[in-house]
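Researcher: I'd like a structural prediction for the single chain below. Treat it as a standalone chain; there are no partners to consider.
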Amino acid sequence: MNDSNRTDPTTEPGFDETRPPAPAGSAQAASEKIAGRETAADLKPGWERATLEKLAFAALNEQKATRRWKTFVRLSWLAFFVFLVWFAMHRSTTASVTTPHTAVVEIKGEIAAGADASAEFVNAALRAAFEDEGAKAVVLLINSPGGSPVQAGMMSDEIVRLKAKHKKPVYAVVEETCASAAYYVAASADRIFVDKASIVGSIGVLMDGFGFTGLMDKVGVERRLLTAGENKGFLDPFSPQTDKQRVYAQSMLDQIHQQFITVVKAGRGKRLKETPEMFSGLFWTGQQAIELGLADNLGSLEYVAREIVKTEEIIDYTRRENVAERLAKRFGAAIGDGAIRSLKAIPSIR
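Model: Treating it as a single chain, here is the predicted structure.
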């Protein structure tokens, strides 16, 4: 075949000398072959199928590359946000390892399992504060009406243990309220500081609940409760309470109350000016609490850090719920179910 019979590609319509040749296997190369850029030697039987396969594989490769890039970008952003959350949660403690400071652990709101003021959260914060060599003292910043004696007892025991192990002083600073189980915890501190108008005390125990037996009789509702065990239905709000059960419940409260009194006496010692009303459940102002020996001095967190600890830098070790936990509580769908279950639950002891 003469060279004159060959087609010169530079004379073809749409030919661009400045355009580089398409890489082999790409979608562009495959399309160029379809457009007539295949040489005669390349045109073999079944070339249409081969060309379509090349086009399909090229398109798949491009899609895979795009997906990989998108996945990489998303994972990079996820890692970035995880780092930000981790840094925000740990910046207060990681930066304080060698710097002298006053460590603070907040006890705010109801003392209960699962709450911010739970033994799980508070004890974890206490351990971190005591173990930090830079912490010269630990301050319990309290604003709580009380709650579970079990949770308070666990906190009190941990404070006593950590004080003996690390030989660091513990001070309690009361804001608005330090009552009931909150005072149970505060009594384990070396000294208690209050505001003159703070509410302090309420050294007592209660068990509350509801009884609907009279209402059920009026509306003609019959309670059908089957139990195996004479006292299995004890404290059921829809069943009458017997004198025997009432006496038993009262003995439990008296025992827990005596545990409370023992902790207060052990913590306050000879500073207490005991009166008949001191352990009756009454509460007093901060000024009255100082006069009774339930508290030591007037003072705020800043005052204690500056004048008592002699280290003005304050670092908060309080353990708090993360963002996901807060959103779960805020948008949870168990509010109505919780209200119903609260009517059926065993009355709480506080």
